[in-house]
Specification:
It contains twelve helices and nine strands. It is an alpha/beta fold. Strands 1-2-4-5-6-7-8-9 form an eight-stranded parallel beta barrel, surrounded by seven helices. The protein is globular. It starts with a helix and ends in a 12-residue tail after the last helix.
């Protein structure tokens, strides 16, 4: 058994209260007037009503195609404070809403209607070329599909531009729902995407053009993108994503003795220079929000982040947790008082919150 495996087993055995909640991330001045940017919002709003912000992950991928207009329509109909999305840039320099930096065979069908058998980088395709692909169904033969058995598949669904998603959501909600937007890059393969500086500049142009610089939270695992955005506008809320594999003894540990590993996703910043504390790193580097994976968060780390004025939003990775929604984990996160939960199933999350007296988001049903 490797040291990494031993460390992980020790961590799991010693920390039965690991923070397992479906995703959470809220660090901006929220557009819904009752959300705080300081992290206090999970306990109570000024009116005394409790609030944990709901983030509809990739729209609502438990029920509708991810990162698509139908997915966001579903999320708004269910109710959410924030719509979550991932972005990449195509050959034209347009920002496209997609979780993957390549065409994902698990969700992508070619012009002939069959699922792809290989990946193609989005960076190498024009938007016109991307429109030839349908992302409205899950490949039933893929392991990915088993996590979302209730997703309603559709035909003729295309990858949207970021600006089109923003306009759709604002058109439906009148600006009452915020935007959580994640840069998708890979510091191990910079040639697969645009570089962080160029990507950040392109995103900021869209944020300004669409008037949402104060109604968004911008997140990334590749912290370089957040640094670049911060240089353009320090008032745009940045959310620093981390995962289990950044913890001690893991593959991409921030605590590795090898700085090329410890600083890979942090742009060279090292946890050892911040008292071996991820919350302290996030705060010092300009983040308003820390977004740890549920299996990573501990109550102690949550309390430390709160003491620093950080908002803490958690997220679940079904491939780690084994399910898209674990009610036991979500209930634990609610009890801990996280500020927001990023979830593939906003309906079940809202039900759990409502039963406990928490405020729930407005619903927006379109014809």
């Amino acid at each position: 058994m490797t040291p990494a495996v031993v460390n992980r087993l020790a961590f799991l055995l010693c920390c039965p209260l690991l923070l397992p909640v479906a995703l959470l991330c809220g660090c901006a001045s929220a557009p819904i007037g009752d959300a705080s940017s300081t992290g206090a919002s999970a306990q109570a709003t000024p009116g005394g009503k409790k609030l944990i912000q709901v983030y509809a992950h990739r729209g609502a991928r438990s029920f509708a195609p991810e990162n698509t207009i139908p997915g966001y329509a579903t999320a708004l109909a269910i109710g959410t404070h924030w719509v979550d999305m991932d972005i990449v840039m195509d050959k034209d320099g347009e920002i496209v809403v997609s979780h993957d930096i390549w065409l994902n065979p698990d969700i992508t069908r070619g012009p002939g209607g069959t699922f792809l058998t290989h990946r193609r980088l989005v960076k190498n395709l024009t938007y016109a070329q991307l429109q030839q692909y349908d992302v409205g169904r899950l490949n039933p033969d893929s392991p990915y599909a088993k996590y979302f058995p209730e997703q309603h598949g559709m035909d003729g669904v295309r990858m949207p531009l970021l600006k089109d998603v923003i306009r759709y959501v604002n058109g439906v909600t009148g600006g009452k729902v915020g935007f959580q937007i994640e840069f998708k890059t890979d510091p191990m393969h910079d040639d697969w995407t645009y570089m962080p500086q160029e990507f950040a500049a392109a995103l900021y142009d869209v944020l300004q053009e669409e008037g949402i610089t104060r109604d968004c939270e911008i997140q990334s695992f590749d912290w370089r993108c957040l640094y670049e955005l911060h240089q353009l506008d320090a008032d745009v809320a940045t959310a620093y994503l981390t995962e289990w594999d950044n913890e001690p003894g893991t593959e991409y540990s921030f605590f590795s003795d090898d700085p090329s590993i410890a600083g890979l996703w942090t742009g060279g910043e090292l946890a050892k220079d911040y008292n071996d504390s991820i919350p302290q790193m996030v705060k010092a580097l300009g983040g308003r929000c820390w977004e740890p994976e549920d299996l990573e968060l501990t109550k102690e780390a949550l309390d430390e982040a709160r003491s620093l004025g950080l908002k803490v939003v958690v997220w679940t990775w079904p491939e780690h947790s084994g399910t898209a929604f674990d009610p036991k984990t979500v209930k634990r996160m609610i009890d801990w008082g996280v500020d927001g939960i990023i979830t593939d199933d906003p309906g079940r999350l809202i039900s759990l919150l409502a039963a406990r007296g928490y405020r729930t988001p407005e619903r927006f049903v379109t014809d």
